[in-house]
Model the fold of this input.
Amino acid sequence: MLKIYNTLTKKVEEFKPINSPKVNIYSCGPTVYDYQHIGHMRRYVGDDILIRVLDFNNFRVKHVMNITDVGHLVSDADTGEDKMEKGARKFNKTVWEIAKMFEEQFFASAKALNIKKPDLVMHATDYIKEQIVFIQALEKKGYTYKIDDGIYFDTSKFSNYNKLSGQNLKDMKAGARVEMVKGKKHPSDFALWKFSPNPSTSSGQPKRLMEWESPFGIGFPGWHIECSTMAIKGLETETLDIHTGGIDHIAIHHTNEIVQSEAATGKTFVKYWMHHNFLLVDGQKMSKSLGNIYTVEDIIKKAMPAGRQGFEPLALRYLYLQTHYRQEANFTFEALESAQTALNRLRENISNWGKPKVGCAEFEERFLQAINNDLNMPEALSIVWELVKSDYPTSAKAESLFKMDQVLGLNLGQDQKLEVPEEIMKMVKEREELRKIQSYHLADQMRGRIKKLGYNVLDTEKGSLVKKIGK
Ligand code: AMP
Ligand code: ZN
Done:
């Protein structure tokens, strides 16, 4: 039985999709105005683990993710600069060019980390019409009001506004240090549609780079509306099974997604809300001033000490798996080095294993329990190591480990898929014995024979590593 923590109920719950075995998931995707860093990518690896665990439990997943390529304001309070326009200026490109560039960067990082691609990727700018129709539905139901700045959602019309964050309205008011938009009735009200500045009245304000005609006036959608619109359209349902995001999405973005969706449809918007915690670097928040923002590309380029090979993105994936998704994680290069070493050791172990045969039920059962217990990947990894070190025949360990790797996503089966023939493995073992009794000359001759048959043998701390020549 799969159990996951639901932010809505604040409990670990049994997962029961609405239309089992089908599961529909929506993830808030990246805002493509700058590089996606290893903090962002921790989140998407977290989503990937969720999806792999669902697959492993034989659910049939449909996963939709949005790309926020329309300008949203840098503050959650519907004020401040437009992120896309800011990015365009910073990189001296058009908004459309930076949207393309950073979407590509995001998917390249995702691929390097072995994250499965969503079934459907939806760009906010492709669904402006649908967002307008959504706002009109809210308008018709009396949930909106118009001010000089745009069309706003009146949160006082929605009972239980804070059910996701659990924050009470009093705290929100007290914490409403955010700049208030003139005319906004309550601090929690939010923009559904923002008007472009009127050139005749707003002297000196530059014309917006991204704006659209609408029945309300020329402007652009608020941030939250794109997710409600695209989730319902993309998943073809008004109630989703799972919606994911970062913990910073809870108080504003997801709270607002809920109210506007439920106001429009009259139905529960999402059954299970799942939120990923943040990644720190050297124990600190990532920031430009600390110079500690790294992308996946930066990680690959960074050489390991003492001339060892560079880091692999999969080592970063391994590092992410070492912390539970609801816990803050800490990135250090020392931790990455340990993760790389652990990954190398796993591979070295496997390279000598026999062809996968009937697995180890005991370990498979424990692994399943760990992943089904709110995706406890640190526990799952420790079970993997116990399995590797166990006395089971290597063919059984191989069978179980490759199964587990469907969830871990560390591509462990790749070397093994070469399936080193038994006769070669026998020679490798003989060579090991020769080395043990220090018959190095005979061991070298054996290596030569193995090479003639198309395999290289490397001596590592953990024993022999066999690779097919040319792979
Ligand atoms: P941004 O594009 O910087 O607005 O970030 C988009 C989302 O990525 C945020 O809302 C978070 O959910 C997530 N995110 C940003 N920084 C981190 C981090 N250091 N660790 C984990 N997630 C992050
Ligand atoms: Zn969203």
